[in-house]
Amino acid sequence: MAAPGNISWTFILTGIPDLGDNQEWFSIPMCLLYVTAFFGNFTILIIIKSDRNLHQPMYLLLSLLALTDVGVSLTTLPTMLSIFCFNYNQIYSESCLAQMYFLHAFAAMESGVLVAMAMDRLVAICDPLRYAAILTNSVIAKMGLVIGIRAVCVVFPIPFLTRRFPFCKSHVLSHSFCLHQDVIRLACADTTVNSVYGLVAVLMTKGIDSMFILISYGLILGAVIRMKANDARVKAFRTCIAHICAVLLLYIPLLGLSVLHRVDKHANPLLPIIMADIYLLLPPVINPVIYCVNTKQIRRKMAQLFTRRKVVFHTNATQSVNVH
């Protein structure tokens, strides 16, 4: 019997089907991923906040990226823990819609931050003399505000459009979290409006963002080719490596997941699950590593932070031994 759209329903989340009742075996690597993501991103936030020399456009945008990664991790954490640690796979409609909203909103924010970072690299390489005048801290703050408002407004209608559906088919979702395209496929009603708006929302965020990123790197590539000194070319390229890796880490799994959901209906059902987990779990884990490895200032500050803590710990331990 079809449930009216205004009555609460329950969905069944899917962990990794091939594991069956042994989902708890995946809890250890999953928890390690979350610990690594939180530790890495909060460390970057602490380093940038504590050092006024890093209150520059590039590092402020990096802190925004770390914040969005933390947001994505916090959004997926409750259902992932409940499935893999406590073997509980049910989620009520209100919680599902809330998780859906925040997942898509934070993903849109992350995409917007990557565009802002591409613009930062474009100005730094193509017009370095005016970099400080063009990208001031107030401009970065306004960019962050626009990125947040855009994500909130574009994703806002999706939960309300989804809530009106009756769900009389299977209530089993394909993932360990609620995604819009996964939920509407279970609806017993015409989902054309949701499908069209979902496509429009993707085009308004990730579609436009990917276009701007491609244009930015086309201009950057042209500027690098025109440089006469090889050292300048290598230096310019190195400043872009971390950002290029972050872009690929977000967009490749996203494109793969979109293709699997919309085109290949006969693909292995495990593929979209793996792609969705990569899309939402790996960027928060890998992004801090990428930027720590490729950004000398962050790497140096992190080394100083842990060296200082090690010295403090050793001093306290020595004093404790002397007292006793």
From TrEMBL:
It is a multi-pass membrane protein. GO terms for molecular function: G protein-coupled receptor activity; olfactory receptor activity. The keyword Transmembrane applies. GO terms for biological process: cellular response to lipid. Keywords: G-protein coupled receptor, Membrane, Olfaction, Receptor, Sensory transduction, Transducer, Transmembrane, Transmembrane helix. Residues 40-291 form the G-protein coupled receptors family 1 profile domain. InterPro entries: GPCR_Rhodpsn, GPCR_Rhodpsn_7TM, Olfact_rcpt, OR51/52/56-like. GO terms for cellular component: plasma membrane. The keyword Iron does not apply. The chain crosses the membrane at residues 25-48, 60-81, 101-119, 139-160, 211-229, 241-261, 273-293. Its main location: membrane. It is found in: Membrane. This is G-protein coupled receptors family 1 profile domain-containing protein. It comes from Hymenochirus boettgeri.
